Amino acid sequence: MGSLLFNVFALFTLIAAVGVVVNKNAVNAAMFLLLSLVGMAGLFVLLDAPLLAFVLLLVYAGAVVALFLFIIMLLDLKAENRRVVAPTALAGGVLVIFGFSGSLFKILQGFAPGKSLFPPLPTTVEDVKRVGMLLFQEYNLPLQIMATLLLVATVGVIVLSKRELR
Amino acid sequence: MSLNDYLLVSGLLFAIGFTGVLVRRNLIVIYMCLELMLNAANLALVSFSRFRVAPDGMPDYHGQILVFFIITVAAAEVAVGLAIIVALYRARQTTQVTEINRMQY
């Protein structure tokens, strides 16, 4: 059961990711990104991290993809659809994907601990409680730095979006 | 499923995203491919977190905290990056990287 679900979600994620890369239309690429993120959330659930799956869906599928679509429609990129890919870029891309996958296979072949199954969990996961406790106790300072980062990003976006930059 | 299966998916996703960054010309699509690469790193972190079981039998949640922070930073990064793209589009009327080849406007 778990193996079947893993295969389905992994294939879903990877095929949607390929769709992001090969799609000529930016709107379709954003939709494939959304599908890829949904598959990724499924993988997170299979890894017993339902909280992160939910956060991923809320933040990425809810906010980031919507922002992408908003900007694509704001800029109206329809006229730029019919560009051909440069042969050097295509050769580089193929080289990267094959070289990277080949070395990945080789490394994972030699990575013995990863071949064992995941250890079973004794009880149900209470990851909201655990993550919350860690976040507000051990990682309190990084959390506040992250909050400051979000504030800075908000102000920065407002400054960047003003009509004339000085 | 074993850890290697998840790491393989993560690595392939990273490779696909990297290829997209190299091949595509549209700045917005390049940004989407960057998001794919970030998510590949997230998947690897979550699978390692599930694999390394703490003494009390629960997954190691430090990795999940890191994923939480990565998601936050990625959201801020997308907001700022898209604002820069919009500002660039106002100045140049294009988002193709081949046509943006001067530092000074």
What is the CATH topology classification name of chain B?
A: Helix Hairpins
Q: Structural class of chain B, please?
A: mainly alpha
Main CATH class of the largest domain in chain A: Mainly Alpha
Q: What's the story with the biggest beta sheet of chain A?
A: none
User: How many β strands of chain A by DSSP?
Assistant: 0
CATH class of chain B: Mainly Alpha
> Which spans of chain A of ≥5 residues are poorly predicted at pLDDT below 50?
none
Topology pattern of chain A, helix = H, strand = E: HHHHHH
The tally of structural domains of chain A comes to: 2
Radius of gyration of chain A: 21 Å
- What is the overall pLDDT average of chain B? 88
What is the mean predicted local confidence, pLDDT of chain A?
86
Task: Note the beta-strand portion of chain B.
Answer: under 5%
Largest interface: A-B, 82 and 70 residues
Counting copies of identical and different chains, the oligomeric state is heterodimer
Strand content of chain A: under 5%
Features of this protein?
heterodimer, A: 166 residues, mainly alpha, Four Helix Bundle (Hemerythrin (Met), subunit A), 2 domains, B: 105 residues, Helix Hairpins, 3 helices, 0% strand, elongated
